[in-house]
Known about the structure:
This protein is of the alpha+beta class. Helices cover 35% and strands 13% of the residues. Helix 1 (2-15) packs across helix 3 and helix 4 packs across helix 6 (68-79). Strands 5, 6, 7, 8, 9, 10, 11 and 12 form an 8-stranded mixed sheet that branches. Strands 1-4-3-2 form a 4-stranded mixed sheet, with helices on one face. The longest helix is centred in the middle third of the chain and has 18 residues, at 292-309.
Amino acid sequence: MALYATAASVLAGVESRRGSIKGLVYASSFQNVKQLYALVCETQRYSAVLDAVIASAGLLRAEKKLRPHLAKVLVYELLLGKGFRGGGGRWKPLLDRHQARLKAELARLKVQRRVSRNEDLLQVGSRPGTASQVPRFVRVNTLKTSLDDAVDYFKRQGFSYQGRASSLEDARALRGRCFLLDPLLPELLVFPAQTYLHDHPLYRAGHLILQDKNQGKIFAFDLDAGRLASMATLLARAGVSCCELAEEDFLAVSPSDQRFRRVQYILLDPSCSGSGMPARQLEEPGAGTPSKARLQALAGFQQRALRHALTFPSLQRLVYSTCSLCQEENEDVVRDALQQNPGTFRLAPVLPSWPHRGLSTFPGAEHCLRASPETTLTGGFFVAVLERVEVPSSVPQAEAAAPEPTPSAAPRRKRRRQAVAPGAQPRTQQVRRASPSRVGRKSPLLPAAQPAGF
């Protein structure tokens, strides 16, 4: 079946680090992306177990034409999955010849490890936990519709609207086709964790993404051409026409360039370990605990990027964000930037009502925002807002405040997850990257001005 061959191809791409499961699944053009994504994720999760069973059973020695990744997918389906779908095609007879031996080796492995359930064979970091129960968060795109219209649409489809949540427990208790309004963020709807909306008509029409209002002009930089292509698609779907994309290194962008001298607001969303991302932990068991060497390398890049961003002459406010839970990439980077710019920038409180704050590693760190599946029922991330203490003298205030004319669409290619935006009224547009229907994911684009609520 095409399902198993495609799953094997995606698995091979993930293990060779050609991309994430989600990115490779969508690039595969396989029609049922939900089915394919689930199969690859589960096969990856049980990868070590499957390798041990396949080796002990001698499957690849007996079937020399069977490729290792395809074998892994097929054995998962036979022993741990839902059985061969659609009859299994030509693969079922092949696996039937080895079924008794494969099952015996799985049973032997359980005896050796003194467990009785398949789930108990997994390493602790690979077991589903709180992260897998993070609700599905969906922001209503107010460029194309309204909150009331979106709620009414879901109600007509048989969903039950429960009103605004009063606590995280309300969101945690969501089941079936019930949904809520987020207690902290406007126009943010909350659905049960397993709600699948990628094929929903409102999502396909660009009515459901993570964003607020938009005005002014946005410059977005990313070195990855694939992410830029995805970004351009999401922007067009959302009706955003004021963004200029650049396949360019943000560190090579000159703050003195005439195009950027009036930039007042920057979202810096640099490469990070992704240790707070539930999806990455499902795709890459152990991804939640990056090595010390990797953390040091990432933090060094993040510090350089933040220092560079703070040199833009008209900058008024900067949002620094990661989807990491590691202090080295968060509080330590922000502390370094403040020490490098004494008296020039200070931390502004981020969503004061948010319950999870920055670690108390330096005075003022409580102004930062942290999130995690355990404390806020979201993906893990960190946000800090740095604001200039005084208006910079290098550019006249009248010039710095003048809004840039909004150009016609046509986004042009250009870099990594940093975005800068020139002067505009304090409104924002925020478009999320790979999975628009999930809160907490980092943004490659950015506010045309001050992010709402920051």
